[in-house]
């Protein structure tokens, strides 16, 4: 009987250590709004990698979960948005399109083109410009705020609920968006002139 309780205790300790370890590297997140449609829907659950940005910096096109900046407060529910511009980039939104460093994006993931304008703005160091995929129904950086690096919880990694939407979260690197936007009528010799991502 003593051996049984000892083995049970060892199994319990191992389970607690595994659970604690998972909490340090992965977080569950429930979509609560419509701001990321059509990519994500209300009630959908995703796993967020909390270690992704310890290995590399956030990249354009990544879907991130983050603590919203002020005036929302430290107790506000985390937001989920897509990174559009990095520190040092310039961003502009006009005539239904987003421009990064002067280059127009071809964004296949948005619900509809933005119906608003955003004057050219250079992103400060340590800050990220984020937009919801549901451009006209999202509280995001076009309303005047950016995301400090320290506010980023992690990168949306895996959709786990509902079962029909299970799979890896699709990210759209800037270079893919620029190429798809520019190749319509571009010759191969002009590819060298595309901005680096």
Mind telling me the CATH class? Mainly Beta
SS element count, helices: 3
Helix content: 10-25%
Kindly report the CATH topology: Umud Fragment, subunit A
Order of helices and strands: HEEHEEEEEEEEEEH
Number of domains: 1
SS class? alpha+beta
> Hey, roughly how much beta strand do the residues contain?
25-35%
CA-CA gap between termini: 63 Å
- The average pLDDT value, as a whole number, equals 83
Q: Look at the structure and name the CATH superfamily.
A: Umud Fragment, subunit A
Indicate the low-confidence ranges by residue numbers.
183-197
Radius of gyration: 20 Å
Query: What is the CATH architecture term?
Result: Ribbon
The 3D shape can be described as: elongated
Major sheet description = 8 strands, antiparallel
Query: How many distinct beta strands?
Result: 12
């Amino acid at each position: 009987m003593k051996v049984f309780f000892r083995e049970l205790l060892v199994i319990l300790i191992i389970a607690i250590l595994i659970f604690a370890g998972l909490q340090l590297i992965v977080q569950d997140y429930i979509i609560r709004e419509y701001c990321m449609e059509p990519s994500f829907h209300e009630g959908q659950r995703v796993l967020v990698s909390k270690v992704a940005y310890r290995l590399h910096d956030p990249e354009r096109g990544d879907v991130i979960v983050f603590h919203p900046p002020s005036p929302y407060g430290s107790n506000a529910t985390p937001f989920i948005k897509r990174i559009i511009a990095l520190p040092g980039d310039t961003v502009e939104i006009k005539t239904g399109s987003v421009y990064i460093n002067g280059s127009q994006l071809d964004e296949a993931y948005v619900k509809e083109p933005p119906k608003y304008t955003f004057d050219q703005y250079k992103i400060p160091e340590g800050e990220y410009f984020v937009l919801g995929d549901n451009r006209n129904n999202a509280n995001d950086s076009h309303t005047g705020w950016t995301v400090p690096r320290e506010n980023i919880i992690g990168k949306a990694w895996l959709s786990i609920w509902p079962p029909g939407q299970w799979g890896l979260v699709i990210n759209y690197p800037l270079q893919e968006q620029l190429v798809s936007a520019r190749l319509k009528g571009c010759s191969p010799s002009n590819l060298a002139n595309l901005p680096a991502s």
